[in-house]
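Inverse folding, one chain.
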């Protein structure tokens, strides 16, 4: 006779086993992470009247929309935020604070993804030597493939840094070689370029994408923004079924890809080709496709978020997104087997205007020279400042030590002196970051961006709407203000019901939430909490 306890235990085991099987069966077969660079949270609502039902609105009306999702740090730059999205950690943990930093030991610049020990594949003369060896924290891709070696991941971006950072150490990462305008990778990921990528590169991409005129998607009177400088505005609706793309106005092919909507079209076209060629989502082992749309950032920086060019780019992206999602749903068929995570790496500042905002530009080179002159006047001539990189001032530690001085004292002096400059709102020294804990406010956001081995000696934050002086740059990111930190966040598919959440969400939650939906452990350095979805 079986005891009652044995029967209960057996029934419990069967129930848990059935639940586990049910959960496993509901796991998405294909996860698609889409990151639209420099997209503000309110862009989807602002331009919704001109969006189709199958692009952005397909996601907002059919998925889980988080209206108050923000990055809780100052360094809202593409590398830092892509690392946060892929690892679930703050820059203070994952260590990606900029594209480059100064090595205090030898005063040389270190570039985040540059690696002379690898060879670029399908790059002229083997250039394009990029790898993730400088990445510290594991990504969602790494966690997924560690959990299931049969899973596959592909990351694509125009910019090699975006592809490398979002992808991590596992799977494939592809980017556009700026010399030949072909899809490339490096020997870190594979000893040779896959045949399907070669086949795609052998097509006449110029004829397919890089001809025609960038003209407005709609009639002129349908646009909300009014500022424009290069786009051809239509007075009457055309009969074209496919929006034409770009003007050849003295732009090199790579510039056409980086600075016009054709870059997004090309990227999503290659994404479709990757899904088909690698049979992503075709079996029960979850695959991941990461799509980083860098072109949107370049358009926002060049023309500003209030421009017709930026608005038109979103309408064209909506069109391309509609086609892309239709393609994916046709292949995978069951929407519950697809998970789309849609977001942005950061927003962007209001447009700088030379006439009305002439004072809202921070001259980096002038700042470096004056700070160096200040230290030379106090302590003797020398190269005291190694440089200014993305809101960080790097001091020459070797010179400080040679003079037997205190680096902490120099840092504090520079931080105090920096506050005298027009446009600077806050300045904190590296010593203050390492020795103090800031639980809220501006200092917390600056500390969350600080990684001791890579960040500068003094971190500064500019006043609202101020940006650094850059050629052909109307708008930029990299601040703690809402226009940079507040971004869209949508989870669509995977059986998720339409829903709207207005509670605050930290963007470190994206990776652990996605991991939970896949049914794997969150990335090792993840700090975010799992979001509740219906």
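Residues assigned per position:
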């Amino acid at each position: 006779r079986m005891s009652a306890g044995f029967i209960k235990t057996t029934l419990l085991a069967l129930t848990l086993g059935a639940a586990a099987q049910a959960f496993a069966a509901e796991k998405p077969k294909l996860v698609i992470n889409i990151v639209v660079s420099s997209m503000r949270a309110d862009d989807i609502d602002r331009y919704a009247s001109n969006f189709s039902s199958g692009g952005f609105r397909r996601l907002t009306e059919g998925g889980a929309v988080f209206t108050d999702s923000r990055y809780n740090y100052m360094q809202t730059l593409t590398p830092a935020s892509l690392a946060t999205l892929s690892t679930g950690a703050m820059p203070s943990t994952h260590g990606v604070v900029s594209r480059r930093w100064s090595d205090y030991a030898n005063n040389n610049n270190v570039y985040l993804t540059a690696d002379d020990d690898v060879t670029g594949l399908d790059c002229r003369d083997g250039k394009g030597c990029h790898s993730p060896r400088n990445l510290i924290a594991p990504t969602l891709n790494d966690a997924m493939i560690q959990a299931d070696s049969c899973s596959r991941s592909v990351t694509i971006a125009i910019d090699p840094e975006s592809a490398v950072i979002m992808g991590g150490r596992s799977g494939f990462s592809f980017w556009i070689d700026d010399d030949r305008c072909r899809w490339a990778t490096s020997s870190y990921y594979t000893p040779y370029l896959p045949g399907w990528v070669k086949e795609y590169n052998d097509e006449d991409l110029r004829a397919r994408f890089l001809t025609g005129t960038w003209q407005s998607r709609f009639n002129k009177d349908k646009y909300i923004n009014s500022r424009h400088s290069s786009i051809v505005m239509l007075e009457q609706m055309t009969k074209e079924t496919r929006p034409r793309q770009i003007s050849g106005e003295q732009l090199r092919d790579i510039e056409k890809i980086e600075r016009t909507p054709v870059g997004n079209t090309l990227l999503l076209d290659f994404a479709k080709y990757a899904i088909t060629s690698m049979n992503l989502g075709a079996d029960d082992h979850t695959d991941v496709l990461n799509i980083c749309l860098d072109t949107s950032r370049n358009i926002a920086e060049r023309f500003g978020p209030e421009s017709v060019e930026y608005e038109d780019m979103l309408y064209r992206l909506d069109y391309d997104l509609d086609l892309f999602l239709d393609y994916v749903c046709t292949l995978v068929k069951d929407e519950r087997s697809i998970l789309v995570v849609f977001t942005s790496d950061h927003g962007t500042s209001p447009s700088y205007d030379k006439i009305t905002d002439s004072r809202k530009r921070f001259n980096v080179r002038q700042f470096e020279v004056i700070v160096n002159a200040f230290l030379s006047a106090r302590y003797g001539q020398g190269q005291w400042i190694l440089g200014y990189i993305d809101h960080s001032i790097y001091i020459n530690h070797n010179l400080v030590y040679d003079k037997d001085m205190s680096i902490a004292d120099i840092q504090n002096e520079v931080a105090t002196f920096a506050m005298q400059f027009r446009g600077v709102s806050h300045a904190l020294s590296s010593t203050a970051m390492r020795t103090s804990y800031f639980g809220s406010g501006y200092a917390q956001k600056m500390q969350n961006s600080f990684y001791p081995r890579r960040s500068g000696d003094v971190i500064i934050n500019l006043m609202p709407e101020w940006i650094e002086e850059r050629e052909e740059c109307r708008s930029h990111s990299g601040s703690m203000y809402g226009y940079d930190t507040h971004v869209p966040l949508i989870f669509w598919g995977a059986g998720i019901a339409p829903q709207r959440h207005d509670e605050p969400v930290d963007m470190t939650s994206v990776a652990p939430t996605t991991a939970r939906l896949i049914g794997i452990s969150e990335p090792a350095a993840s700090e975010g909490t799992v979001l509740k979805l219906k």
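The longest helix spans residues 308-332. The CA atoms of residues 186 and 472 lie 31 Å apart.
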